[in-house]
Amino acid sequence: MKFPKFIIKKSTNDQFYFNLWSKDEAIVLKSEMYTTKQNCKNGIESVKTNAPLDKNYDRKMSDNSKYYFVLKSQNNGQIIGTSNMYPNASDRDTAIESVKIDAPIAETEDLS
């Protein structure tokens, strides 16, 4: 399967989660844990809907001075994805731009 794509996996405690992989084959967004596969798929659809809109991103800095972002649902403000940590704001912002472009067109691969 080509990139970008969402990959669904099952955790050791039988919950489901997804990662969004960019065109460059790097993980740019990680989901929370879901109790059902259908809820996980609904999370992917929410990312696809919310990703293009810049107002849905919160740009943050961690306690150890690393940069990251969270993607929130415009409907309820719930976090639907969290990025990796980046060494600077520029790398974080580049990842946001990647999610905006990649998420709406990404296919889903189920490895659960």
Polypeptide structure, described:
It is a single chain. The strands form two sheets. A four-stranded mixed beta sheet has the order 3-2-1-7, covered by helices on one side. It has a three-stranded antiparallel beta sheet with strand order 4-5-6, with helices on one face. It has one domain (5-110): PH-domain like (Roll). The protein has helices at residues 37-50, 89-102, and strands at 5-10, 16-21, 27-30, 57-61, 67-72, 79-82, 107-110. With 112 residues, it is an alpha+beta fold. The two termini are 16 Å apart.
Question: How would you sum up this structure in a few lines?
Answer:
The chain has 112 residues and is of the alpha+beta class.
- Principal-axes geometry comes out as globular
Characterize the quaternary organization of these chains: single chain
Proportion of strand residues: 25-35%
> Describe the biggest sheet?
4 strands, mixed
Rg result: 13 Å
Low-confidence residue ranges: none
What's the order of the H and E elements? EEEHEEEHE
**Mean pLDDT across residues:** 96
Q: Which structural class best describes the helix and strand composition?
A: alpha+beta
Q: How much helical structure, as a percent, in the residues?
A: 25-40%
CATH topology: PH-domain like
The CATH first-level class comes to Mainly Beta
End-to-end Cα distance, whole Å, is: 16 Å
* Strand elements, count: 7
Figure out the total of helices.
Answer: 2
CATH architecture: Roll
Strand order in the sheet with the most strands:
3-2-1-7
> How many domain units?
1
Domain DUF1508: 12-58, 64-110
InterPro entries: DUF1508, UPF0339_domain
Organism: Flavobacterium taihuense
Protein name: YegP family protein
